[in-house]
From TrEMBL:
DNA binds at R297, R316, R321. Homohexamer. Forms an RuvA(8)-RuvB(12)-Holliday junction (HJ) complex. HJ DNA is sandwiched between 2 RuvA tetramers; dsDNA enters through RuvA and exits via RuvB. An RuvB hexamer assembles on each DNA strand where it exits the tetramer. Each RuvB hexamer is contacted by two RuvA subunits (via domain III) on 2 adjacent RuvB subunits; this complex drives branch migration. In the full resolvosome a probable DNA-RuvA(4)-RuvB(12)-RuvC(2) complex forms which resolves the HJ. It comes from the Bacteria. This is Holliday junction branch migration complex subunit RuvB. It comes from Streptomyces pathocidini. Residues 57-190 form the AAA+ ATPase domain. Keywords: ATP-binding, Cytoplasm, DNA damage, DNA recombination, DNA repair, DNA-binding, Helicase, Hydrolase, Nucleotide-binding. The lineage of its organism: Bacteria, Bacillati, Actinomycetota, Actinomycetes, Kitasatosporales.
Length: 351
């Protein structure tokens, strides 16, 4: 299978076509329904309540965190809680300052502008946004060269909700213009169980507590993945059983899709398996490891490794990739008595 960009993984955190079609039905509509993220929820609640009490517009909000953790959902909740409409766009869609000017100038008072992947906006658009956020004004440049003139345009007060997977990539002047920054964490299994119960209810699927726990444990801390796995388990329960999701049904269904008890899929297990079985647990260079699993370096490094590192199964060291004791245990293998092997011979392709 090709795991290159665009290949769909059941445990991938980016939205696929089916996710997009069903996600709006599963989105919590207000802060009370939003599961987990207690800090962000409490802080945002204060920001919104205060703005409502003042009868004004809420401060600009920056949400950072991995894909599928609920940034879009929270942006929609900000609008709903403020009783305001929402406009949704993304950094890559705004390549010219003019694109942004067109959007900003059509906003109505109090409207929420959701800018996903805000770190991918073009530089000129970013500079226009500074002024819009601070002074609710933009300068529209008319003409070219020495004859160009800037026509100031007043904007109604609005709330920008920016989302980014990488808050560190935002230039400080942009970051500083947000009144509130919320960092979204990966979800605890108990929180994902609540997400699954809620979604199962909305999808009209019966799920017992152990069934939800089984799916939660394989969802990589991410509600989008939990919802996706729930849909696949529901299919299995309907076709192979009486439609009720139990622990056995969930485990069997996700076994069919090769998502293991910890949420690793075939690619993750291939990388980990090669590291353990072929290289004695490492250290081994990334290129060597990639050749061993028959994948591109980038696929191993960007698609498989981040979750393996997060799970404490693999470490990236200056000498190469190293498996942790938990990796041996997870694949049910006994570590060699002296972990380490012969890195000089294994690093044939460099790090
Ligand atoms: N806290 C939550 N409680 C319940 N469901 C949630 C929660 N967070 C996210 N979800 C569900 O997960 C799905 C993905 O959420 P959302 O689209 O908001 O993620 P995102 O962080 O914006 O992702 P991306 O960065 O890819 O745009 C939604 O369908 C939503 O129903």
């Amino acid at each position: 299978m090709n795991w290159e960009e665009g290949a769909e993984r059941l445990v991938g955190a980016d939205a696929d076509g089916e996710d997009q079609a069903v996600e709006s039905a599963l989105r919590p509509k207000n802060l009370d329904e939003f599961v987990g993220q207690p800090k962000v929820r409490e802080q945002l609640d204060l920001v919104l309540r205060a703005a409502r009490a003042r009868g004004g517009t809420a401060d600009h909000v920056l949400l950072s965190g991995a894909p599928g953790l609920g940034k879009t959902t929270l942006a929609m909740i900000v609008a709903a809680e403020m009783g305001a409409p929402i406009r949704i766009t993304s950094g890559p869609a705004i390549q010219h300052a003019g694109d942004l000017a067109a959007i900003l100038s059509s906003l109505t008072e109090g409207e929420v502008l959701f800018l996903d992947e805000i770190h991918r906006m073009s530089r000129p658009a970013e500079e226009m946004l500074y002024m819009a956020m601070e002074d609710f004004r933009v300068d529209v440049i008319v003409g070219k060269g020495p004859g160009a003139t800037a026509i100031p345009l007043e904007l109604p007060p609005f709330t920008l909700v920016g989302a980014t997977t990488r808050a560190g990539l935002l230039p400080p002047p942009l970051r500083d213009r947000f009144g509130f920054t919320g960092h979204m964490e990966f979800y605890e299994p108990a929180e994902l169980e609540r997400v699954i119960h809620r979604s199962a209810h909305l999808l009209d699927v019966e799920t017992d507590p152990e069934g939800a726990a089984e799916i939660a444990g394989r969802s990589r801390g991410t509600p989008r993945i939990a919802n996706r796995l729930l849909r696949r388990v529901r299919d299995y329960a309907q076709v192979k059983a009486d439609g009720v999701i139990t622990r056995e049904i969930a485990a069997a269904a996700l076994g069919v899709y090769e998502v293991d008890a910890r949420g690793l899929d075939r690619l993750d297990r291939a990388v980990l398996g090669a590291l353990l079985k072929l290289f004695g647990g490492g250290p081994v260079g990334l290129s060597t490891l990639s050749v061993a699993v028959g994948e591109e370096r980038e696929t191993v490094e960007e698609v498989a490794e981040p979750f393996l590192v997060r799970e404490g199964l693999l470490a990236r060291t200056p000498r190469g990739r190293v498996a942790t004791p938990a990796a041996w245990a997870h694949l049910g293998l006994a570590p060699p008595r002296q972990n380490g092997g012969a890195p000089g011979q294994q690093d044939l392709f460099g790090a």
